[in-house]
Design brief:
By secondary structure, the chain is of the alpha/beta class. The chain has helices spanning 16-21, 23-32, 44-50, 70-84, 96-104, 137-146, 163-175, 201-215, 228-237, 251-260, 270-277, 323-326, 330-344, and strands at residues 7-11, 37-42, 58-61, 88-91, 109-113, 124-126, 184-188, 218-222, 243-244, 263-267, 282-285, 301-304. It has 13 helices and twelve strands. Helix 2 packs parallel to helix 6, helix 7 packs across helix 10 and helix 8 crosses helix 9. The longest helix has 15 residues, at 70-84.
Length: 349
């Protein structure tokens, strides 16, 4: 019989896309311990993403570039967690640091994967010697918690926004002349992991123009603070016939705006997984990343990629000629989008 835990700390993963893919595992923890108070320890971006999620009761933020930087910062964080009196920590990342903090906080039960020389910091360990080559990351997180007796009843990522956030997104669009009934095409040309994952701004611009003309759609451009230049290039390609939100939204605003989109064209990225979690039909361009393990988890998604000998290399920056991305044409993406559109959008032309 499984022990009853009353206050559970879940150490979140560090990337938005990974956090979305871990939501079925979070829901499994909630189902296994429905009466427990579940707290998520997360960096600011992931914490915002999952704030208000039905699997958790509260979010504690850590900032390794700010107050939790260095040894003194880690000790400060551990001291804070110790006062919360958690009786269980479930550690989703595989890093040494993510297991060190619960150990320093003297949380009595600490569960995680046996990796990165951190086994002695854990009280229960997930061992894997020959993981399936074709396993999706969603399944990995479910396998992790299942090894501790926590079974997931759902395998699809899930996110939630509030009614107020949805209303504010609609109001923002209305201010820019986009009514509630408008067909909205989202374009996400960024990918924070590195430049190797990014398809080309001029090609995104051409795809956006062709699809908007075909579908009588309005265009909204997405991107983070580090991607403003890339998105501005697309805006210039479209001669400003779009709403450019790059670097202007919080994570919560980004979620509500993506949720409102009727269709999404994107690189392999965090926003791609957000769109998939909200059931937005999407086409994703894949190059150097693993299209098997990190594909959008949705039956309304299509992947466009070209097989080349060096992919998936999983590198941040291409050391050669970026052939995996140059091989993907605008025609490839437009054709995939049109097929998916016809299958998912009622009343298609």
């Amino acid at each position: 019989m499984q022990q009853d835990y009353h206050s559970i700390l879940v150490r979140a993963v560090n990337w938005i896309g990974d956090a979305v893919m871990a939501t079925p595992a979070l829901m499994a923890v909630r189902e296994a311990y429905p009466k427990a108070r579940i707290t998520l320890l997360a960096n600011p971006l992931v914490g915002q993403l999952l704030q208000g999620h039905p699997a958790i009761d509260q979010v504690l933020f850590f900032d390794r570039k700010g107050e939790h930087n260095g040894l003194a910062g880690r000790l400060r964080l551990a001291h804070q967690l110790k006062h919360e009196q958690f009786d269980l920590a479930i550690i989703l990342p595989n890093s040494f640091d993510s297991a060190l903090i619960p150990w320093l906080a003297r949380i009595p039960h600490r569960w995680g994967k046996a990796s990165d020389r951190r086994s002695l910091l854990l009280t229960r360990r997930f061992y894997e010697q020959n993981p399936p080559q074709d396993r999706h990351e969603v399944q990995y997180y479910c396998d992790l918690v299942r090894s501790f007796g926590i079974s997931a009843s759902q395998s699809e990522p899930f996110l939630a926004t509030t009614l107020q956030e949805d209303d504010e997104a609609a109001a923002l669009l209305a201010i820019h002349g986009i009514p509630a009934e408008a067909m909205l095409l989202g374009i996400n040309a960024g990918a924070s992991f590195g430049s190797a994952k990014r398809w080309y701004p001029e090609r995104f611009g051409e795809v956006a123009r062709r699809l908007a003309d075909k579908w009588n759609a309005r265009i909204i451009l997405f991107g983070g603070p580090d991607e403003v230049g890339i998105v501005n290039e697309i805006e210039q390609t479209l001669q400003a016939q779009c709403l450019n939100t790059a670097g202007k939204t919080s994570v919560r605003q980004l979620m509500a705006l993506i949720k409102r989109c009727n269709f999404f064209v994107t690189n392999d990225s965090g926003p791609m997984h957000i769109a998939a979690a909200f059931g937005v039909p999407l086409v994703a361009v894949f190059g150097p990343t693993d299209h098997v393990g990190t594909a959008p988890c949705s039956d309304k998604a299509a992947i466009v990629r070209q097989s080349v000998d060096c992919a998936p290399c999983k590198l941040r920056v291409c050391p050669t000629d970026h052939r995996c991305m140059t091989a993907v044409s605008t025609d490839d993406v437009v054709q995939a989008a049109q097929l998916l559109y016809e299958a998912n959008i009622p009343g298609e032309p």
